[in-house]
Amino acid sequence: FGVPHKIVADNASNFSSHELTEFCYGFGITLAHSSDYYPQGNGQAESSNKNLVTIIRKL
Length: 59
Hints:
Domain Integrase catalytic: 1-59
Oligomer: single chain
Protein name: Integrase catalytic domain-containing protein
Order of helices and strands: EHEH
Organism: Taxus chinensis
GO molecular function, one term: nucleic acid binding
CATH architecture: 2-Layer Sandwich
């Protein structure tokens, strides 16, 4: 699968840290955040997480 081109995350502090930003920059990953106070905007991140969990379980 390789390195992702984009990561969509919510605005939790662990997803907006300087360390994660630098990590993503180092690998050429775009880090995007969902909208504040708009739960529907987090649906894309949650959907991706569901797909990842399914793939990991199959391994």
